[in-house]
Amino acid sequence: MSSIIEVQGVSKSFGGVVANKDVSMTVELGGITGLIGPNGSGKTTLFNSVVGYHPIDAGSIRFEGKEISNYQVQDIARLGLLRTFQQTRIYGAMNGVENMLISLPHRKMSIWDALKTNTSEDYERADHLLEFVGLYEKRMLKSGDLSFGQQKLLEFAMALMNEPTCLLLDEPTAGINPTLINGLIDRLKRANTEFGITLFIIEHNMRVIMNMAETIYCLAHGEMLAQGTPDEIQNDQRVIDAYLGAH
Amino acid sequence: MAKNKTILYASILAISFIAPFAFPAFGTQLATLWLMIIVALTWDMTGGQMGYNSLGNIFFYGTGMYVAAVIAIGLVYDVGDYTNAAGGGIYEFTDAQYFGGLFLGVFGAGVFCSITAVIIGYITFGLRGPYFAIGTLGVAIAAGELVSNWEWVGGGQGIALPVYPGDLDTGKIFFYFIFAAIGISVFVFVKWLYATRFGAAINAIRDDEEKADAMGIHTLRYKLITWAMAAFFVGMAGGISAFQLIHFEPLESAYQTINLGIFMVVCVLLGGKGTLWGPVIGAILFHLFKEVTWNFFLGWQWVALGALIVVTVVYFQDGVMGWLMHKRPEWFGIKVEAGAAGEAK
Asked: CB distance B213–A104 less than 8 Å?
């Protein structure tokens, strides 16, 4: 397998606070990669650096071999590298179907394509994906009225509608009812295998990430502490210490 | 439903057609009503549908006036000499020169305003919310001041255009029908536009621009195109106004920020922001209100208008359409139980 995202020696500070220090990692094409770490260890900062929310201080970030560390958010999104938000963001005033249709990949459209109305295939795809995440029955409701967990599922479906090459998920199971989590794990795995989307996931729920990811990276105090398979990570004394606060 | 709609549209068209003949005394008033509808509908394109409240759309109206006048005059005479004479010289226009100049001028005004919208938009679309409103207002005010000091286009005196060749009453009906034609075109155009993916994308920009960015929507490009489309129609409306008014000057009639520039916003708020019919209904109500107060409460008209604005902004933000949607959701196809996915609003 070749790598799709390569992060090399990335550092980022906010004033005197060092959020990421000389972080290096790779995301394998077509796989599921996890990123864990205690609160405040710099996971979301690393995500934001990758998707272009802020410039990095040092290092390089490559997507499909292309240097993207100086790109803006929308430029990176147009390359097919998409992210979901830790605080879910959907278009609350619109219903589920409208949310889905807006998420059609505009990066693949010319202005003339954009000036067409949505085709019946677009509606079918929207319905299909809403069914995939289990929101089909609620698709005509105003999405701002959905529960937080349902909004997360909708955001995930919207991301799939956008046909990304790689999807960065910031805590996909946070705030979701434990009984729904199993279904979500299953759907994430299917998105990976059926739609061929590379996943890069930040997750606090160990059970979830150990079940899904092939490779896991662990951050602590802004530095890359360990990497390996779920088994290796689970038995790594440094990781256990970091989580239990042994430093 | 479809049949009802056809009847509705047909009767509106019929009324529009008959109105100037049935009420000949109100010819200019009815033409102005169409102007209000045009500027309200185009303001709603950015203000209501895209979430960018521009106070500078009047810039396109004023610029449209000047561009149309300069084109129409420039085709026949030297513009500098013409404006220097300030209507005192002898400058004849044949019918062909008048109508040719009018149509080329009005079309040229639309194209020119589209281009300026892209340039100004490129600078001002970095601003959000009230900052965008103030920024665009600044553009309109600055343009008015600059033009009023530009002697080539008549400076503070403005420009006097040739009078409509022929009977004045026919002229009134002529201008009514051009305004009506553009008004109907704008309505048909935005009705189509809001049903496209483009329309959905500008709604996404309104609801959460950062999310739209993160989803890879070409936000800046879409914003520029939307404003350029609005500016095209406003510029044409300005061009026609120039010929209808015959004489216009920069601050009170062209770049009239505190009159038409604010009226268009009030029309949209009154009728309902972000809806197809809201701007039309708002323009009709506002124009009626304005004409009644101007005729029967002269001296108090600005007070009444100010009161209307305050009441609308404070107590009636959703406008007539928003209020109706709240009271009668079933009229708009909003059902609690799932309906067909493809159903229009």
From this structure: no
